[in-house]
């Protein structure tokens, strides 16, 4: 490892510094690190983790669990590079995340962040080469995927970045990676690992806002299927999802 760049430096090759700080949630109290994977139950997960973190303190959970500055959980910016590196390499410091079938995760992102949200459309419209960035402009699912396919991974928004890159799969020695498709069961497993002496795992309900899983036939034709296969080929392979058919 002599002369090799530290892990944070290697992370920066795939993700902007502020995205790293937003996406990694650290609890020195319970000795774990949660690598957030947007559109994969992160709202439900952060609610449980933040509630647990403030237990027995005078802190309150922020009204918006996505408000990173108000979160009771630490982020990488709260540690020196040396300290953060030590946490990443400490086998006793549990690291976990969740993943989702790329066909469903990507559609959920499109519905929530592009079809129903104006702000996140800006980068997509610019990538599509629209002469004027009009946030009211309709962007089809195929157009969205075509734009994502043109983006370098380091420039992608966290909501549609490939999951292997978003959770730094190749850089972090994970203790547990759950699956959205088995969320309640896998979350109970995660809870037993995170809080073995202080909590009886009860599960948590995932708040599925987009309902993407029920809309696959509406949004997918041959073009969209091929684009998702291409963009997220590594996700399908690494996390053992079937790319030959819609779930």
How is this structure best described in words?
The protein has 247 residues and is an alpha/beta fold. It has a single domain (7-238), classed as Rossmann fold, CATH 3.40.50. It is 41% helix and 7% strand. It has twelve helices and four strands, in the order H-H-E-E-H-H-E-H-H-H-H-E-H-H-H-H. The chain has helices at 7-11, 17-23, 42-54, 81-89, 102-115, 121-127, 141-150, 163-166, 183-194, 216-219, 222-231, 233-238; strands spanning 24-27, 32-35, 94-99, 176-179. A four-stranded mixed beta sheet has the order 1-2-3-4. Helix 7 (141-150) packs parallel to helix 11 (222-231). The longest helix is centred in the middle third of the chain and has 14 residues, at 102-115. The protein starts with 6 loop residues before the first helix and ends in a 9-residue tail after the last helix. The mean pLDDT is 89.
What descriptors fit this protein?
single chain, 247 residues, alpha/beta, Rossmann fold, four-stranded mixed β-sheet, 12 helices
Query: Helix count?
Result: 12
Large-scale geometry: globular
CATH architecture level-2 label: 3-Layer(aba) Sandwich
Strand residues, percent: 5-15%
Radius of gyration, CA atoms, in whole angstroms: 18 Å
The tally of structural domains comes to: 1
Listing every helix as H and every strand as E from the N terminus to the C terminus, the arrangement reads HHEEHHEHHHHEHHHH
CATH class: Alpha Beta
* Main pleated sheet: 4 strands, mixed
| SS-derived structural category | alpha/beta
Helix residue percentage: 40-55%
Mean pLDDT: 89
In the CATH hierarchy, the third-tier topology is known as Rossmann fold
> What is the β-strand count?
4
Strand arrangement across the biggest beta sheet: 1-2-3-4
As an assembly, this protein is: single chain
Low-confidence stretches: none
Distance between the termini: 42 Å
């Amino acid at each position: 490892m002599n002369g090799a760049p530290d892990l944070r430096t290697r992370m920066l090759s795939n993700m902007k510094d502020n995205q790293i700080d937003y996406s990694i949630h650290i609890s020195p109290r319970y000795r774990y690190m949660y690598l957030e994977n947007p559109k994969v139950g992160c709202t439900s997960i952060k609610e449980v983790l933040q509630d647990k973190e403030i237990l027995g303190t005078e802190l309150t959970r922020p009204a918006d669990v996505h408000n990173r500055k108000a979160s009771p959980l630490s982020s990488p910016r709260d540690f020196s590079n040396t300290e953060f590196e030590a946490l990443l390499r400490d086998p006793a410091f549990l690291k976990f995340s969740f993943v989702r079938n790329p066909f469903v995760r990507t559609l959920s992102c499109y519905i929530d962040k592009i079809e129903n949200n104006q702000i996140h459309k800006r980068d997509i419209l610019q990538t599509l080469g629209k002469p004027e960035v009009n946030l009211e402009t309709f962007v089809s699912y195929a157009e969205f995927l075509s734009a994502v396919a043109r983006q370098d991974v380091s420039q992608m928004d966290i909501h549609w970045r490939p999951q292997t890159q978003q959770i730094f799969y190749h850089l972090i020695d994970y203790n547990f990676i759950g699956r959205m498709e088995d969320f309640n069961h896998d979350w109970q497993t995660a809870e037993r690992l995170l809080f073995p002496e202080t909590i009886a795992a009860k599960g948590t309900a995932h708040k599925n806002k987009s309902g993407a899983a029920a809309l696959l036939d509406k949004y997918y034709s041959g073009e969209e299927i091929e684009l998702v296969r291409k963009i997220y080929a590594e996700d399908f392979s690494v996390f053992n999802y079937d790319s030959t058919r819609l779930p």
